[in-house]
Hints:
Layout: E1 2-8, H1 14-23, E2 31-38, E3 41-48, H2 51-54, H3 57-62, E4 67-73, E5 88-90, E6 96-104, H4 107-118, H5 127-142, H6 150-163, E7 166-174, E8 178-183, E9 192-198, E10 201-207, H7 210-216, E11 219-223, E12 228-233, E13 238-242, H8 254-259, E14 265-266, E15 269-270, H9 271-289, E16 297-300, H10 306-316, E17 319-320, E18 324-326, H11 339-349, E19 350-352, E20 361-366, H12 373-384, E21 389-394, H13 422-429, E22 433-436, H14 439-447, H15 459-462, H16 472-482, E23 498-501, H17 505-510
Parallel strand pairs: 16-17, 16-20, 20-21, 21-22
Antiparallel strand pairs: 1-4, 1-10, 2-3, 2-4, 3-23, 5-6, 6-7, 7-8, 8-12, 9-10, 9-11, 12-13, 14-15, 18-19
Helix pairs in contact: 1-7, 4-5, 5-6, 9-10, 9-14, 11-12
Amino acid sequence: MCGIIGIVGKAPVNQQLYDGLLVLQHRGQDAAGIVTCDGDTFYMHKNNGLVQDVFQTRHMRGLIGNAGIAHVRYPTAGSSSAAEAQPFYVNSPFGIVLGHNGNLTNSVQLKEEMFNQDLRHINTTSDSEVLLNVLAHEIEQSAPSVALDNDTIFNAVTNVHRRCKGAYAVVAMIAGYGLLAFRDPHGIRPLVIGRAETEKGTEYAIASESVALDVLGFKLVRDVAPGEAVFIDMDGHFYSKQCAENAALTPCIFEYVYLARPDSVIDGISVYQTRLHMGESLAEKIHREWQHHDIDVVIPIPDTSRPSALQMANALNLTYREGFIKNRYIGRTFIMPGQSQRQKSVRQKLNPIGMEFKGKNVLLVDDSIVRGTTSERIVQMAREAGANKVFFASAAPPVRFPNVYGIDMPSRDELLATGRTDEQICRAIGADGLIYQELTDLVRDVRLGNPGITRFDCSCFDGDYVTGDVDAAYLALIEAARRDGAKFKKPSNSATQLDLNLVSVEEEELA
């Protein structure tokens, strides 16, 4: 999971890109990067860390130009080296920078093609750099002359779709030409288009979530369609074309469960409204299966589960209370490197309000259970705070399979639900009762926002991978790369900070 944004404006866009990354920070806390474009020149700064830590005043001064792209990352593939912070840059042809949200399922094959056929060198283990080089090669092959036109760009994207498999939402800048954005033919990862009318003319923004458009004053126009490419030239002219055959929208359902902010609208579906529906469905299941429950209070695990927990409490006619206070300066625990660090982080991240637990039978509501580390520790915290009984509800079905499309869900042997019954999972987290959302109910709840969507990618729940190219060998490969600590081993020659400025921001700072 990553966050991307691109803007073509009528004034410098460095502050807008920074502000956009701040509201997309929930999509990745590992690294951040911004590239701006002024004429034919790129200006870049990127590094590991949170947005507010990566960019200082001196960096922002050097990011000049009225167009640019930006990215926040956590690593689902490759290492956590700062060398793999995005956007990536390639100088031929024309100069291209690219930011990518998703995961290519055939990146190993593509790397071999890059080396043996395309004669391009890949510097990192990131599939995003592979995607950039595929795009650059296809633009080079499609260009009839030294000049680019829209047909050439769209033909290149068509060939990218032909070669690349998996999930990818992309923003890219071609030096001197403009902003290119496209989405894989399944539309797995989100990408939305915004427009703003200013005194100087129309500005465009493309981002992972509509919330980034909202805070920047752009009006949500629509989503980038599956397989579609959008090109906005440096003068602000907008062009689009469907570049994939047999494109069909099958978005990732986990975006609505956990990843996206509740104030976002993705593929016409309100994330907040979906989570309310999820709470209603869980309440109906509790009515069916726990008719004689003795629950006193419903308490959410902040923040994602709040809408579901509130609606569940209303439907069950139970008291809703905030029982945990969240320290917002601790990263997401299920992506942290190593079990011991995750366990320590849970206690740093959440602190119980004792009076809401003491002497009560509590129903804790979380968005999902992945490894179970957080759930087990939270149940323990509730008991230590004085709860008589602790029940646990998951707004999502059991997570039994890895996600291969850009979410860092671990190997199957690290997923708590794999090979276990609900009763065994309940014992493992130490709860007095456990209830999961039904997958059919979850799909129905999300489709209420957009009945035109007939299928979602639910692969982490049912093992059905919508791209059709994921087999046991591939799962074994990614699981080996994702096991605790694997992707956090930094190459010995990795940089600690990366700045690209083809007229050198760093030299300007030292002057």
